[in-house]
Design brief:
single chain, 339 residues, alpha/beta, DHBP synthase, Rossmann fold, 2 domains, five-stranded parallel beta sheet, binds threonylcarbamoyladenylate, binds magnesium ion
């Protein structure tokens, strides 16, 4: 059993657990994290076991103040420019690591991800722990990242020492991960709430890691795994909105047992076969709801037979649409149907 902490005044207890080598799930503004002391190799090893995470996928190290990166990594002027603009907040920067970070955290690599979350509970918890906190998202490997304490309990109950309930995560998709590649250049390894456009305001060159060719090694190991997967196959329908709607209508008419991740306007017409991500143009709400909606499809599938899940191919017109596309294309295992 693990302790459920629902009261901010008990954060000291959670911090004590981390100091003693335990595992604590904590809320952030992106998704919930599964944390342990980044200096404690045994504790970090337990994170991988609890999540059933492949050991070659490195963890992000969380700090309560961007300057704490000095203790365990080599910063530069660009790091501080980016930190001033976007930290605390949903940005992870990859830097060269110092010796004191054990290889368990970085999967043997010589770089480390640094993130200072803006969620007040996360920052206070890390500050009280007095050590940097290594934390992946608090889901079982392959499941959608958790955006509520209930999701964490679903995946991790009994596998950790404590869960801090901080309610719904505000953004709902994981942080932007960017590699500092020079004095004025970064490469986005995972798109998130801090967009390429925003990074360009502070940094001369912003590039994006594109999809991998077969056999190529990804810069960010996490990008090679099938992530965020719902249990039933998910298909992205690429075409005009009316074509998407009639495609799903036709599938339902033909007796297929399917769910439609759609927008508010059509949700009512599809009744029990629809899960809405919000209004069509409200991308922030789509991001906020996406992982919870994927989990709902699993709950539905546990009670009814489910052949397929359909959704719109996300727009790719800049901003956070890049982050939504990145998560959905993986959840769909790259299956796109032209309609
Ligand atoms: O919003 C977030 O980033 C959440 C919250 C808890 O902070 N954390 C999170 O961690 O999403 P995780 O482990 O689920 O995803 C981290 C991603 C993985 O794709 C991993 O491969 C990549 O960041 N990553 C971590 N350290 C890296 C490094 N040194 N070099 C390249 N990629 C790295
Ligand atoms: Mg994750």
């Amino acid at each position: 059993m693990n302790t459920l902490i629902t009261d901010g005044s008990s954060l000291e207890r959670a911090a004590e657990i981390v100091k003693k080598g335990g595992l604590v799930i904590f809320p952030t503004e992106t998704v919930y994290g599964l944390g342990a002391s980044a200096y404690d190799a045994d504790a970090v090893y337990k994170i991988f076991e609890a999540k059933r995470r492949p050991h070659d996928n490195p963890l992000i190290v969380h700090v309560s103040d961007p300057r704490e990166a000095e203790f365990f990594s080599y910063t530069n002027a660009l790091y501080y420019r980016l930190a001033r603009a976007f930290m605390p907040g949903p940005l992870t920067l990859i830097l060269k690591k110092r010796e004191n970070i054990p290889p368990e955290v970085t999967a043997g690599g010589d770089t480390v991800g640094v993130r200072c979350p803006s969620h007040p509970v996360a920052r206070e918890f890390i500050r009280l722990a007095g050590v940097p906190v290594a934390a992946p998202s608090a889901n079982l490997s392959g499941r959608p990242s958790p955006t509520t304490a209930a999701h964490c309990i679903e995946d991790m109950n009994g596998r950790v020492d404590a869960i801090i309930d901080g309610g719904d995560c505000e953004f709902g998709l994981e942080s932007t991960v960017a590699l500092i590649t020079g004095e004025d250049s970064v490469k986005i390894l995972r798109p998130g709430a801090v967009t390429a456009e925003a990074l360009s305001c502070v940094c001369g060159s912003v590039t994006t890691a594109e999809g991998l060719s077969p056999g190529e090694t990804p810069l960010s190991p996490g990008m090679k795994y099938r992530h965020y997967a719902p249990r039933a196959p998910l298909y992205l329908l690429d075409g005009a909105r009316e074509n998407v709607i009639s495609y799903v209508e036709e599938k339902l008419r033909s007796g297929e047992r399917c769910l439609f991740l759609c927008y508010d306007a059509e949700a009512e017409a599809f009744g029990g076969a629809a899960i809405s991500l919000g209004g069509e143009d409200d991308e922030l709400l789509h991001a906020h709801r996406l992982f919870a909606a994927l989990r709902e499809t699993d709950d539905y599938g546990a009670e009814h037979e489910l052949d397929a899940i359909y959704t719109y191919m996300p727009k790719r017109d800049g901003g956070i649409s890049a982050a939504i596309y990145n998560r959905l294309i993986r959840a769909a295992d790259h299956t796109v149907i032209k309609v």
